[in-house]
Write a structure and sequence with these properties.
single chain, alpha+beta, Alpha-Beta Plaits, five-stranded mixed sheet, 5 strands
Length: about 425
């Protein structure tokens, strides 16, 4: 920062300085805008604070210096301070997207030079012609103003130099021409002290300018880092959103695959594989905790005749309605699945042979009095049911084969019946579809 600003100070001209500092595509343009913003914030504050000292100095000189000159000096200083305040306010309230023009620094430089010259001119315009307290007060305040201005102007060192040089030059001129109350040695001593003070302030302003601009560079670096972090966070949020969307899609796909693997595609009840899995689990519970479980096999009677009468679409409607009825009629803990064709299988956990037979009879009676195809309310649908309770040593195939054998026994007896087959019984069975 020091290198950017101080290279231009050696030329003592703002035009070349700003042309160097605002190269398009270079970070110096942002640095220049940050410099001006810091400068005008301090200018706005110092301009407002300078009103009280101006009025105080002018008030102290009424009756001791020419009133017209005192009033003229006060109004001039207040006017310059107001102009600086308005310039600073205009800059700070402008649209941030607008590029900072070199004119802002030119105007502030001229205003700072006018302020410095005005403080020096106070010695001329409010000259009491004697070495008194008012002279010492003005001299002390000029020194204080020059020192205080380092904080408010040194961010752009050229502006501070433009303020400092006129103030010290006018002070030296006043010491040479308007101090008859000082002897020669005192006069030159005052000039030498002013020049030493000038050199000290220039050295101090160099250090302050360097520190201030380094702080600005760090602030810009932090702003860039914050912007990069925000961009990274936005990218991370977007990636997280994509991952969450993909996870939802995968979950939905997994659910579809699970349904496809465990459910019958037509009736939406469990398929044969899922029924076998359920039986494995329930038989394990029976062996470990002696919890009874029964199997119920149901087959729609005269399905071939219904198919000839209703066609394939009607049969599909019947199967869907039949499966829906079974799922709704049985308990939530029961498993309902399609075994194949018009045959369905139900697993009844915590159900012994007596309870299973009661369940089968209840289901059979409700099927007999139910309309499954709305377009054919006169169609009478019945079903045959086979029941078997699991016993020691059963596996899913053996239990289902026994329930299937009970079903064929019911069919041989004339359909629309429920039949139970114990493990000790031996029945000739048909093929299990």
């Amino acid at each position: 920062m020091h290198s950017q600003c101080d290279r231009s100070l050696s030329a003592l001209g703002t035009g070349a300085t700003l042309e160097f500092m605002v190269e398009p595509g270079n970070d110096t343009a942002r640095l220049y805008s940050a410099q001006l913003e810091a400068l005008f914030r301090q200018t706005r504050t110092s301009s407002a604070l300078s009103v009280a000292p101006i009025l105080l100095i002018a008030g102290l000189h009424f009756g001791h210096a020419a009133t017209g000159l005192v009033v003229m000096w006060a109004f001039a200083m207040l006017g310059v301070s107001a102009i600086r305040f308005l310039i600073a306010q205009s800059f700070l309230t402008r649209r941030k997207s607008v590029e900072s023009s070199p004119m802002w620094l030119d105007v502030e430089t001229m205003a700072a030079a006018a302020v410095g010259a005005g403080w020096g001119a106070s010695l001329y315009m409010m000259n009491t012609g004697q070495l008194d307290m008012l002279f010492a007060f003005k001299l002390a305040y000029i020194g204080a103003a020059c020192a205080f201005a380092i904080n408010s102007m040194a961010v752009v060192r050229f502006v501070y130099v433009a303020f400092l040089l006129p103030a010290i030059a006018v002070l030296c001129g006043y010491a040479l021409m308007e101090t008859p109350f000082l002897d020669t040695s005192s006069r030159y001593g005052l000039i030498i002290a002013a020049l030493l003070f000038l050199a000290l302030l220039l050295v101090m302003s160099t250090s302050v300018s360097k520190l201030t601009n380094e702080a600005l560079k760090q602030r810009l670096a932090y702003a860039d880092l914050a912007a990069q972090l925000e961009t990274a966070l936005d990218a991370e949020r977007a990636s997280r959103g994509q991952l969450e969307q993909q996870a939802r899609q995968m979950e939905a796909t997994h659910l579809k695959l699970h349904v496809f693997a465990t459910h019958d595609p037509l009736t939406r009840v469990f398929n044969r594989h899922r029924i076998s899995e359920a039986l494995v689990r329930e038989l394990h519970l029976r062996r470990r905790y002696q919890i009874p479980v029964s199997a119920l096999v149901i087959e729609i009677d005269d399905y071939a005749g219904i198919s000839e009468r209703c066609g394939q679409a009607g049969c599909d409607e019947l199967l869907i309605a039949f499966a829906t009825f079974l799922a709704a009629d049985l308990r939530e803990i029961d498993y309902v699945g399609r075994w194949g064709g018009e045959k369905f299988c139900c697993v009844l956990p915590r159900t012994d042979s007596r309870e299973a037979m009661e369940c089968a009879e209840r289901v059979r009676r409700r099927i007999e009095g139910r309309c499954f195809i709305e377009s054919l309310p006169e169609l009478v649908v019945t079903a045959s049911l086979g029941v078997s309770e699991a016993v020691e040593g059963d596996d899913p195939e053996r239990l289902l084969a026994r329930a299937d054998a009970a079903l064929y026994a019911a069919r041989r007896e004339g359909h629309n019946r429920s039949r139970q087959l114990a493990a000790s019984q031996s029945e000739e069975t048909g093929p299990t579809a």
